Amino acid sequence: MQQNLADKAKKHTVILQIPPGLTPVWADADRLEQILTNLIDNAIKYSQAGTTVTITAKGIQDTPEMVEFSVCDQGVGIPEEHLPQVFSKFGRLDNPLVRQTEGTGLGLYITRSLVLALGGQITVESVPGSTTFTVKLPAATPEQQAARGRG
Question: Is 149 inside a domain boundary?
């Protein structure tokens, strides 16, 4: 899956912004990878070649017990009235670019389900020419980090 994503990303500029010393997330690594892979794949899939996809991870100053990930693209955007549909089961928007791409409409539904199962939140903001999905997941406590280091 990662190689397939890397091949798709060759047509885009991908910017990764992760500060040093970021508190780790307390989550199943495979599920976290599935969440991020789906969001990045969608950002690439629904953006024209040559555009930029920015992936950011950061701590949240007001909520230190959470870590925030965002995936921002320069795609066509999602009309405001369609934003609630993006996390629906089989939810695909009636848009010429969307119709040209393959998909079942389950990716964001599954992503949202995984985020919620991990105790997190997922939101989407969009304007013409840009969509940002933001995921907030629990940060590992110092005790959890220490236990992980011993395990």
Answer: no
